[in-house]
């Protein structure tokens, strides 16, 4: 189980780190150079990664869960909530569909779902 984060403020990173410890997950920080790469590239599953031209949206913050079952996700989210850190607005589970998307496309999809 891994939690991938991009552009989180320090207090949120600390909360994610603590929640990862409780849930037994690994915390991975995504670099700015990787935001136009596919989710499967980020999680290390891409056979032949290539840059994707997509939205130029700036990602405010993003958290992606890979390898979580619902019970372990509940443990993580409960542990995060107990830290009293502000909520990470844009988060997603890795799915067979969204793993082909770039991070910027996934982010724009989450923004649209949230109605912002």
Total number of strands: 4
Helices and strands, in N-to-C order? Answer: EHEHEHEH
Distance between the termini: 29 Å
The number of helical elements comes to 4
Percent of residues in helical segments?
A: 25-40%
InterPro entries: UCP014543
Pfam family, one: DUF3783
Organism: Pseudobutyrivibrio ruminis
Protein name: DUF3783 domain-containing protein
Describe this structure in words.
37% of the residues lie in helices and 15% in strands. The termini are far apart. α1 (10-23) crosses α3 (70-82). Strands 2-1-3-4 form a four-stranded mixed sheet, sandwiched between helices. It has four helices and four strands. It is of the alpha/beta class. The chain is globular. The chain has one domain. It has helices spanning 10-23, 39-42, 70-82, 103-114; strands at 2-6, 26-29, 62-66, 91-93. The mean pLDDT is 91. This is DUF3783 domain-containing protein. It comes from Pseudobutyrivibrio ruminis. It holds the Pfam family DUF3783.
């Amino acid at each position: 189980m891994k939690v991938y984060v991009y552009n989180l403020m320090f207090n949120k990173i600390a909360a994610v780190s603590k929640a990862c410890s409780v849930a037994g997950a690994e915390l991975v920080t995504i670099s700015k150079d990787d935001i136009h790469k596919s989710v499967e590239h980020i999680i290390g599953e891409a056979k032949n990664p290539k840059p994707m031209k997509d939205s130029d949206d700036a990602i405010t913050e993003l958290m992606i869960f890979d390898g979580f079952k619902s019970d372990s996700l509940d443990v993580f989210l409960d542990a995060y909530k107990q830290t009293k850190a502000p909520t990470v607005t844009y988060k997603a589970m890795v799915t067979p569909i969204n793993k082909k998307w770039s991070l910027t496309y996934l982010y724009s999809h989450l923004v649209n779902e949230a109605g912002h």
